[in-house]
Amino acid sequence: MRILKTDIVLSCIPLSNVVIILVFCIAAAVGHYYGHHGYHHLPHPYKFGYDIKDHHGHQHRHEHGDGHGNVHGSYGFTDHRGIHRQVHYVADHHGFRAEVKTNEPGTASQDPAHVHLHSSAHHHDHHGYGHHDHHHGHHY
């Protein structure tokens, strides 16, 4: 039987010490690899948007950020019946602020939670958006 020098060295070191040494070697290797490839990147300015027009209506969204935590944007829709909602928003060191313009049934002009809602909906008795006076099927 041939005895290698590593067998003699390992047989002289208690198993618990070998495990501890291995753990430190693995931690050092992982720390070295991930230390140079951090997940935190500095913010960069950005801009995106889309506009979709089809037989259902029109949807859109546009947003841009300056890379310093300030964001401006808008989104909205107009359906095939002319019901629309347009939202303009800002998020910055003053917090989030939005202005909503709509003619959706059931809305009224108001300013809840720093959101300004401007409605041009007709004020009459109704049951809300999408309500029909006829019934189909079962209601659960």
TrEMBL record:
Keyword list, A-Z: Cuticle, Membrane, Transmembrane, Transmembrane helix
TM helices/strands, residue ranges: 12-34
A GO molecular-function descriptor: structural constituent of chitin-based larval cuticle
Keyword field contains NADP: no
Pfam families xref list: Chitin_bind_4
Statement: the UniProt record of this protein carries the keyword NAD: no
This protein's name: Uncharacterized protein
Organism: Trichonephila clavata (Joro spider)
